[in-house]
Amino acid sequence: MTPARILIADDDPDILEVLSDRLAAEGHSIQTAADGEAALALVKADPPDLLLLDLMMPRLDGLQVLDRLRMEGSDITAIVITAAGTVRSAVEAMKKGAYDFLTKPFDPQQVALTVRHALEREGLRRANRMLVSQLREKEPTLVGEAPAMRAVVQTARRAAQSRSTVLVLGESGTGKEVLARSIHAWSERRDRPFVAVNCVALSEELLESELFGHERGSFTGAVQRKTGKFEVADGGTLFLDEIAEMRADLQAKLLRVLQEHRFERVGGTRPIDVDIRIVAATNRDLAREMAEGRFREDLYFRLNVIGITMPPLRDRKDDIPRLQDHFLALCASETKRRVRGVSREAASCLLRYDWPGNVRELQNTIERAVVLGQDEQIVPDDLPAHILDHSAVTAPDPQAAGPFHSEVRRLKAELIRDALRRSAGHHRRAAELLGLNPTYLSRLIRNLGVKE
């Protein structure tokens, strides 16, 4: 059984001693409280994994403590302690949310069994919450067979089997977070939390609290204790995106966590030990950031144990067909649209474009085409104008490409002229005859110089 933090609340010192000794012998960390008020204060300050709660205590009795906890939104697992003649009170406590009850005098085996079952139930609840959270998130898939991506995946899979820190570099939109999630999924930590923090999305003050948490009253507005992302990610992976945006003093605190695997909450004094793997990412040139004094050199070397650079999409255009099909399937499923593929003309436009926004821009483009398109295929008319214009500008000039391309150009123009004659110059009818999108036909007419 995994060791747990257990709070025992009872006004009888002998009971506290017996239960504390027995549960500590099983490896658990024990706190005690002699009355209901003290128990409530300890739960608020630092919630334990399990609460053993006597029903008859001064100041606040056990039922009142349960009422207060539920009113404040706590879902702590509680076992109530009661005398043999007051089982009715224990039943009432279970109606208020208690998991089980123990009767005095204690049967040592019953105590161990009840505590074990309660902790197993708490573990299942945590696993369920984590699973629900993960299912609600969009979990992108790392897609790519181009040589540059195969090298990235190979390195990432090896890194995943270690505890080493990983630094992911690359332009915006190349899929750095997707890679971080893949490293987590390939690792032994896959069943523990993956927690992502965007260091540029929060103010400097909020980022410190978000990472390390804070104690109640540590600053104006800190009305209750907050658990930080380092603590939430314990046992799992913490992804720090845009790490170069972190201010200098937070860089120093992060360096300490990497070195010592412990930290204190803002306003706190108790060190908290954590077991986490950190994956950090940035689109900045860290060599320049260090040279200009904005990023700590010692932190860089701590983070860059395993360095991986995500290639831009323009350097792995062989992956565009795979990516477009992947995003098309996802978006069509989410939007319940019957879009089954990308036309040859539209696919050609996507391949010729340089994608300054990388994979994220391609995903957005496919989503736009699925949502706004009218056909069962994505056609050039469904693509943004700047992608079509770029494709037209960057397409090779057939007249300068030799006799083969010149002949193809002449035949295309002749086919279009024939379709226009047959449709009496009506573009939409001509497009239907040729099996083309009307907008794409209009572009061909202009690019080929067809006289109507």
SSE inventory with pairings:
Layout: E1 5-9, H1 13-25, E2 29-33, H2 36-45, E3 50-54, H3 62-71, E4 78-83, H4 87-95, E5 100-104, H5 108-136, H6 147-160, E6 166-169, H7 176-186, E7 194-198, H8 204-212, H9 229-232, E8 237-241, H10 248-260, E9 262-263, E10 272-273, E11 277-282, H11 286-291, H12 297-303, E12 306-309, H13 320-335, E13 341-342, H14 344-352, H15 358-372, E14 377-378, H16 385-394, H17 403-422, H18 427-434, H19 438-448
Parallel strand pairs: 1-2, 1-3, 3-4, 4-5, 6-11, 6-12, 7-8, 8-11, 13-14
Antiparallel strand pairs: 9-10
Helix pairs in contact: 2-3, 6-7, 10-12, 13-15, 14-16, 17-18, 17-19
Q: Could you characterize what this model shows?
A:
The protein is of the alpha/beta class and 452 residues long. The protein is built from 19 helices and 14 strands. The strands form 4 sheets. It has a 5-stranded parallel β-sheet, with helices on both faces. α14 (344-352) crosses α16 (385-394) and α17 crosses α19 (438-448). Mean pLDDT is 86; it is low at 393-401.
Strand order, main sheet: write it out. 2-1-3-4-5
- Please give the largest β-sheet: 5 strands, parallel
**Distance between the terminal alpha carbons, to the nearest Å?**
82 Å
**What class would the helix/strand composition place it in?**
alpha/beta
- Compute the CA-based radius of gyration: 31 Å
